[in-house]
């Protein structure tokens, strides 16, 4: 597959993910921000758990737990759109 096509597809997926996240009433603002950082929707660069913990002023362990729960929540929301 052409590399430019791959990049176009990735951008489409990221745009759709952000649209779903922004429209979902089951996700609060903090969760939206975590998702955007974690999946590179904010700066086109995914952020690691340790960095997220610093940004959100919590321990890496607590952030990992929060991200794990949030990912499950997001995947359940995405299932409704697929």
UniProtKB/TrEMBL annotation:
This is RNA polymerase primary sigma factor. It comes from the Bacteria. It comes from Caminicella sporogenes DSM 14501. SUPFAM superfamilies: Sigma3 and sigma4 domains of RNA polymerase sigma factors.
């Amino acid at each position: 597959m052409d590399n430019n096509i791959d990049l176009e597809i990735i951008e489409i997926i990221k745009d759709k993910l952000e649209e779903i996240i922004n429209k979902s009433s089951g996700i609060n603002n903090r969760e939206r921000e975590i998702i955007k950082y974690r999946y590179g929707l904010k700066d086109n660069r995914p952020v690691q758990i340790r960095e997220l913990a610093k940004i959100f002023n919590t321990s890496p362990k607590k952030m990992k737990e929060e991200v794990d729960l949030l990912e499950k929540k997001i995947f359940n929301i995405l299932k409704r759109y697929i």
